[in-house]
Amino acid sequence: MKVLVTGGIGYIGSHTCVELLNQGHEVVIVDNLYNAKIEVLSYIKKITNKEVTFYEVDVCDYDAMKEIFAKESIDSIIHFAGYKAVGESVSKPVEYYTNNIYSTLILTRLMKEYDCKKFVFSSSATVYGDPDVVPIVETAKLGPTTNPYGTSKLMLEKILTDIQAANPDWTIILLRYFNPIGGHSSGLLGEDPKGIPNNLMPYIMKVANKDLACLGVFGDDYNTPDGTGVRDYIHVVDLGVGHVKALENIANDGVHIYNLGTGIGYSVLDVINTFEKVNGVPVPYKIQPRRAGDIAECYADSSKALEDLGWQATKTLEDMCKDAWNYVLSQK
Ligand code: UFG
């Protein structure tokens, strides 16, 4: 299958490209390098020993995208490209809504023009808002979301559902990711956020590497076993495999929704302790007030993905912590 991967040089995109290539698919990457480094392209090739086609293009550039569709005979699309920083989305809602929604609309317009019928969308567990019950099943209530980033994901799920209704022979797959962390076992691919990180694992890595002095733990008074927030951390390689399984195993038309998580909730302190133990490096931390918009607990019921796709996360929190740190070490 020839797969167009937007944002294919980014964190989740690059790991997914490796898994697609490993399964013998042809990969066409479109990335504007806004939040990605071009070297990643050569690492994808080095890991897989396969070629990929790359276009440095912004998905919002309709004319440039049209040229790619005209040239490439795309069978299906995995759309990762987008703005993803929760905090930044609060101060830049126009940019977030414009970029995330417009890029998706352009892709669906080109799907119609070039008879491409399969689309996989990067959604997020954030669409569930503060869940009433954990583990979360796909049929759980949606929203309210607490920031423009999350709202753009929820809106896009609805937009794509409407577009599928108007194009009944299309297959739209909405993958709701939980908390992706870790990196490729080669140490060549991993998460490398710009500036001071917002997310837990990238912050831990900066503290472990002594780039930052101390991790702030946002709240220890939640109704969880140790009082800190509980999340479903999933290894990014497992997540990449989930995309390939979804693409390969969903043949019928319609809108198909899957949670991609491990089904296990770990607290912030669990992650810190595991990271310190498996890597033998200290991660000094200090308890701070709760972060606005955070919820106590969020973890997936991923049994639908197992039943329908034959997909299940296989890697442990230990693997995730080891591979995250291995990436930092290999950058030195
Ligand atoms: N945390 C800290 N200190 C930090 C950063 C995070 O204690 O410096 C805590 C948070 O309070 C939370 C946990 O670590 O309890 C995880 O926080 P992250 O920022 O890593 O992740 P979130 O669960 O807040 O958000 C992530 C993605 C979003 C996505 C959401 C889906 O960043 O894009 O999961 O549930 F929408």
Tell the overall outline. Answer: globular
Bound small molecules, by name, code or SMILES, are: uridine-5'-diphosphate-4-deoxy-4-fluoro-alpha-D-galactose
The DSSP helix count reads 11
Structural class assignment: alpha/beta
Give the integer mean of the pLDDT values.
97
| Beta-strand percentage range | 15-25%
Work out the helicity level.
40-55%
Give unreliable regions as ranges: none
Q: Termini distance? A: 37 Å
Q: What is the multimeric organization of the chains shown?
A: single chain
* Main beta sheet: 7 strands, parallel
Number of strands: 14
Order of helices and strands: EHEHEHEHHEHEEHEEEHEEHEEHH
Radius of gyration: 19 Å
In the sheet with the most strands, the strands line up as: 3-2-1-4-5-6-11
Fold and architecture overview:
By secondary structure, this protein is α/β, with parallel strands linked by helices. Helices cover about 40% and strands about 15% of the residues. It has helices spanning about 10-20, 40-50, 60-70, 85-90, 95-115, 150-165, 200-210, 235-250, 270-280, 305-310, 315-330; strands at about 1-5, 25-30, 55, 75-80, 120-125, 170-175, 180, 215-220, 230, 235, 255-260, 265, 285-290, 295-300. The strands form four sheets. It has a seven-stranded parallel β-sheet with strand order 3-2-1-4-5-6-11, sandwiched between helices. Strand 1 (about 1-5), helix 1 (about 10-20) and strand 2 form a beta-alpha-beta unit. Helix 9 packs across helix 11. The longest helix has 22 residues, at about 95-115. The chain is globular and about 55 Å long. About 45% of the residues are buried. The model has no long low-confidence stretch (mean pLDDT about 95). It binds uridine-5'-diphosphate-4-deoxy-4-fluoro-alpha-D-galactose.
